[in-house]
Write a structure and sequence with these properties.
Layout (H helix, E strand, L loop, with lengths): L1 H22 L6 H21 L5 H22 L7 H23 L1
Helix pairs in contact: 1-2, 1-3, 3-4
Amino acid sequence: MKSWLFLALAVILEIVWAIGMQYNRNWSHPGWSAVVIIVLLGSVYALSLAVQGIPLGTAYAIWTGLGTLGVAAWGVLVLGESASLVRALGIVFIIAGVLLLKLQADTA
């Protein structure tokens, strides 16, 4: 259970650093740049703790999949990016993939 909590933390930090990339403006804002680097390192560290109890492939796929989902949702909800049917379908596939990986990890 602790590994899944570390993975959840890694995902949240993944989303935060990816969103922060937009605000650091090509590394020209030192404050945002520092946030991105620190949160990125925290995300990778939490992922490294998660893989102690979750298969690497499963943890990495969930980390990147949910990170992508979170950043895509931020783009649509906050930044006004396109919420097209194709984009929504892609998000549904990501969610389905993450759920299947979690289900497989629970049965292994």
